[in-house]
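User: Can you predict the 3D structure for this chain?
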Amino acid sequence: MFGLGPFEMVVIGVIAVLLFGSNLPEVARKFGGSYREFRRGLNDVQQQFKTAEREAKNTFLGDDSVTSGLDSEVEDEPSAPAAPKFKPPT
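Assistant: Here is the predicted structure, written as structure tokens:
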């Protein structure tokens, strides 16, 4: 994790206990809440980019249908192959 070995993690833990002492659970709880809020905001931004990309793609392709609003992580696969099927010479 972050290129830290077990010894470095122990040293960081000891320093955290020395600095925060009995307040360590409260500090960890606040840090976890901040991290959760950061991830939620990051996911919102990613969702907005995906929606904008999908709308631009539909506009570029001339598809005027309204998007369903459901986000799927799996991209639509093309119905036809991009290259012709290989046929060996006879």
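The chain has a mean pLDDT of 80. The CA atoms of residues 36 and 42 lie 10 Å apart.
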